[in-house]
Amino acid sequence: GMPVIQAINKHATKTIDVHLMIVDPDRYIKTFKEIGADVLTVHYEACTHLHRTLQAIKNEGMKAGVALNPHTSVHLLSDVLNDLDLVCIMSVNPGFGGQSFIENTYNKVKQLAHLRKESGANFLIEIDGGVGTTNARKLLDAGADVLVAGSFVFKSDNPTQTIANLKAI
What we know:
Number of helices: 7
Strand order of the largest sheet: 1-2-3-4-5-6
Oligomer: single chain
Order of helices and strands: HEHEHEEHEHEHH
Structural class: alpha/beta
Distance between the termini: 31 Å
Shape: globular
């Protein structure tokens, strides 16, 4: 939430990357910039006018990302590929951590990497949900640039070592 991001930002030296899983994210764009977000990702499914939302994020000086739920085709982003800094492919259904990875994610990553190359766009492909050492290499090989491994890290006995193991992949 906003108070947590604001508190983290007082001490952070790294990029503050915020993923909004809310309807009507437009009403919070300015606020997230004010509390320190560097990257703001919204869900395709929650935006009535995606292009306008992405432009509003960029106009605030943040990088703009869009997340896709598992059932949403990457091809729906064709008209905004050059407006994106990041595409987050949800590899679990949004809502809570610890879910099983959806295998079709590999195909979606490959399709999106192909669209990126074909269009000449320059955005990162991020995967969020069910990421761990068993699938990280395959995701990177498919074209992913960023892997989010929340539960895998925070539920491990040694989060620091788990992060080191992921970085070594």
